[in-house]
């Protein structure tokens, strides 16, 4: 054998081993695919068997419900475990069978709360079957309709329809758990029409409808709603509730003199108004009852333009005498901007009528040594009148264009705006070694507010040591 032939044969060493390995890999791949197909077929067969067994259980449950009496069947809602085994009894699976029967008013089988008839003449029977390995697949559901005999209904029974709708007053609210307690206790979840209909309940009082959905409130800002209802024999009592995701607003205050707008004003409470609430006004006090530049209004039903009753009206204060619409002539109220379900801290600005006054000393701006101060005491008839400035008079600003105006106790902002109503205004300043004061009555009953004093040089209280005029010796004390 030549050297060339010898080298060619030597280069093929191990080729047969490679062929064997490739063949083995192909056999493994093919076997894996075959086994996967067999496994998938086995699983599919198992799912089919489980679904067939569920269908059998659902049909059996339908037949069971049809044998029940009307008293047992009316408003039925129960779940029971049922076991189904292979023919040889080797493999058993526990199924959950949910049986529900609810009243509907027509043959379509849709439970609605809009009918005016007292009759809820049909029962819809629904059997829903699930099992542990169902995963994300749909359960087996079997449905049928049952019309009870007219002679089966007692004359001392009535029906109750409960409907939940969103803030627009039209869109139904589905998926909310509603409970009825009383002579007969039931519960259920609102359907796509926002409705639950309970038929043939024992007539009488003592029932309560309640629902409590996290993050939702009714028109009064209440999440956990409980409403007493009565059932009238041979009648359908319909109740509709506005219920939606709550919103919040953050209220600030501002006042305007001429073309100058003074933000950062303060109030110790705000009052919201909306005709759907009961009562129609809701008071939101500032924390601790202290006048602050911002008040948060929690748990608001999301009323807005187009909602029943429209958006909230809002004003600073805690009684109706401070409402803009109760002034003479009537003042246009402020409104909370449109609230949408779930909105948080919607910016809301409330306008306050301005108290336009400055303290001067001998005709000039007060100096630090004058210790000029202003006390504003509310005395509006019919209000509690928390005199938030009565404890300590407000110090006057001593420089700039607002020199002489009272300054808010917590900032350098001029105290300009106050809620609508009437006030006793007292200015004081030390001139030389003597403290003088001047007292006026002011009525903030228009959007333009009031100048104090209104005569002489309107809006300027001049305190001086010679020819005091209206000034008297003394300080502004709490009795003023």
What does this structure look like?
With 480 residues, the chain is mostly beta strands. It folds into three domains: 70-244, Immunoglobulins (Immunoglobulin-like, Sandwich), CATH 2.60.40.10; 247-351, Immunoglobulin-like; 355-473. Helices cover 13% and strands 38% of the residues. The protein has helices at 3-10, 15-66, 70-73, and strands at 77-85, 92-104, 122-130, 140-146, 157-165, 177-181, 186-189, 195-202, 204-212, 216-218, 224-231, 236-245, 247-257, 260-265, 269-273, 281-285, 294-300, 313-316, 334-335, 346-351, 355-356, 358-361, 373-378, 394-395, 421-431, 434-444, 450-451, 460-463, 472-473. A five-stranded antiparallel sheet has the order 24-23-25-26-29, with no helix packed on it. It has a four-stranded antiparallel sheet with strand order 1-2-3-4, covered by helices on one side. The longest helix has 52 residues, at 15-66. The model has no long low-confidence stretch (mean pLDDT 85).
């Amino acid at each position: 054998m030549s050297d060339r032939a010898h080298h060619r044969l030597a280069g093929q060493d191990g080729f047969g081993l490679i062929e064997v390995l490739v063949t083995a890999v192909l056999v493994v791949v093919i076997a894996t695919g075959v086994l996967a197909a067999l496994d998938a077929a086995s699983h599919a067969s198992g799912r089919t068997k489980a679904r067939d067994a569920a269908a059998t259980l659902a049909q059996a449950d339908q037949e069971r419900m049809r044998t029940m009496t009307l008293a047992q069947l009316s408003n039925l809602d129960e779940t029971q475990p049922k076991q189904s085994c292979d023919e040889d009894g080797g493999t058993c699976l526990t199924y959950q069978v949910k049986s529900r029967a609810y009243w509907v008013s027509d043959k379509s089988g849709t439970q609605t709360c809009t009918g005016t008839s007292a009759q809820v003449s049909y029962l819809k029977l629904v059997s829903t079957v699930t099992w542990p390995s169902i995963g994300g697949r749909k359960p087996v559901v079997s449905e049928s309709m049952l019309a009870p005999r007219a002679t089966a209904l007692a004359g001392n029974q009535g029906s109750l329809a409960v409907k939940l709708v969103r803030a627009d007053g039209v869109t139904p609210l589905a998926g909310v758990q509603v409970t009825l307690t009383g002579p007969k206790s039931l519960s259920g979840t609102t359907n796509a029409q926002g409705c639950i209909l309970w038929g043939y309940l024992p007539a009488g009082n003592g029932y309560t409808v309640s629902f409590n959905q996290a993050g939702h409130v009714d028109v009064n800002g209440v999440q956990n709603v409980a409403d007493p209802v009565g059932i009238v024999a041979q009648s359908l009592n319909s109740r509709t509730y506005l219920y939606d995701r709550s919103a919040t607003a953050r209220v600030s205050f501002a006042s305007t003199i001429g073309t100058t707008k003074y933000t950062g004003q303060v109030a110790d409470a705000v009052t919201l108004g909306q005709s759907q609430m009961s009562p129609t006004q809701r008071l939101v006090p500032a924390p601790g009852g202290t006048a602050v530049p911002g008040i948060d209004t929690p748990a608001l039903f999301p009323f807005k333009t187009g909602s029943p009753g429209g958006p909230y009206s809002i004003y600073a204060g805690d009684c109706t005498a401070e409402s803009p619409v109760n002034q003479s002539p009537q003042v246009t109220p402020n409104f909370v901007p449109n609230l949408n379900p779930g909105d948080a801290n919607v910016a809301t600005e409330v306008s306050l009528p301005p108290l336009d006054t400055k303290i001067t000393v001998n005709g000039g701006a007060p100096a630090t040594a004058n210790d000029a101060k202003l006390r504003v005491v509310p005395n509006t008839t019919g209000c509690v009148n928390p005199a938030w400035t009565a404890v300590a008079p407000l110090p006057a600003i001593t420089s700039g264009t607002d020199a002489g105006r009272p300054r808010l106790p917590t900032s350098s902002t001029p105290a300009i705006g106050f809620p609508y109503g009437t006030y006793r205004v007292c200015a004081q300043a030390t001139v030389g070694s003597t403290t003088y004061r001047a007292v006026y009555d002011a009525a903030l009953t228009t959007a333009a507010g009031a100048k104090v004093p209104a005569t002489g040089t309107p809006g300027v209280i001049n305190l001086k040591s010679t020819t005091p005029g209206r000034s008297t010796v003394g300080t502004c004390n709490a009795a003023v």
